[in-house]
Specification:
Number of helices: 9
Strand order of the largest sheet: 4-3-5-9-8
Shape: elongated
Number of strands: 9
Strand content: 5-15%
Largest sheet: 5 strands, mixed
């Protein structure tokens, strides 16, 4: 501002009238800077309240009319587990949700955010990457009673397990060479395409993760403008809709389909 005023002084003489003009210009500049700072402070408060203060356990979104919609599926699922399963229940999920499950559902998890044993995490990844039949012995070995997966395809929540699945495959493949990442890409695509649609690989569609994520989803048509089984995150109609389960059974699915829970069948009760 001092540089600007120096230019003004060069154009104006030293009369009292021109000095008054200088003061008015200075006040305008001060007022403008103050207004900008006030709006910046309001903006920072808004960003903090919208982006940083919302806990990840409860999700919020804006509807077309500007109103807020709350997705409380995580707490819904954890409450269901706490109320409907024995205290000694063991849950297999990806490690991201370990602390939440232990704290809010008060149930034992196989891996959590503090699991340092890579081979143990890889075993969970291998179970999800395997077919249901091949995953069942792993579930028994890990003494898992329930399988939990996160699915965002209905509401458009992109941080779900299908989007994390490639990392599970890679970690599983680091300890078991039979788990190959390329087997999960759509065949005959260049570059390799990660797909859950009609061109998804048989290995992908037969995996435990795919079945737990999309079981019964193909029967549901939530949007009249989209076919049944349309995944809003991947923006595609799923490739396999007629999914059957033999070794696990659906126990609970939350209101918005974000959390899906499956009970592992005891060997004597299979079929």
């Amino acid at each position: 501002m001092s540089s600007y005023m120096a230019v003004i002084r060069g154009r104006l003489s030293g009369s009292g009238e021109n000095k008054t003009v200088e003061k008015e210009i200075a006040w305008v500049m001060v007022f403008g800077m103050t207004t900008l700072m006030i709006f910046y402070a309001y903006h920072c408060v808004w960003v903090t309240s919208e982006a940083y203060s919302s806990p990840s356990i409860v999700l919020a979104a804006r509807q077309p009319d500007g109103s807020q919609m709350i997705f409380d599926d995580f707490r819904e699922a954890y409450y269901w587990l706490r109320q409907n399963t024995p205290p000694e229940t063991r849950i297999m999920s990806w490690w991201d949700y370990g602390y939440q499950l232990a704290a809010m559902a008060n149930r034992t998890v196989l891996v959590d955010n503090n699991t340092w044993n890579n081979s143990h995490i890889a075993e969970v990844g291998k179970a999800f990457a395997s077919s249901e039949e091949d995953a069942y012995p792993i579930l028994q070995k890990l003494d898992a009673d329930y399988v939990l997966v996160i699915f965002g395809g209905l509401i458009g929540y992109s941080s779900d397990d299908i989007n994390k699945f490639l990392w599970m495959i890679r970690i599983a493949g680091s300890t078991d060479p039979n788990i190959k990442e390329m087997d999960f890409y759509a065949p005959n695509t260049d570059p390799p395409e990660y797909s859950v649609g009609a061109n998804a690989s048989p290995t992908m569609m037969n995996s435990l993760m795919y079945k737990c994520t999309y079981y019964r989803f193909g029967e549901m048509q939530f949007d009249p403008h989209r076919p049944g089984g349309f995944d809003r995150v991947r923006n595609v109609e799923i490739g396999m809709k007629d999914i059957s389960l033999n070794y696990i059974e659906e126990a609970y699915t939350t209101t918005n389909w974000m959390v899906r829970l499956y009970k592992v069948k005891p060997p004597a009760n299979r079929g």
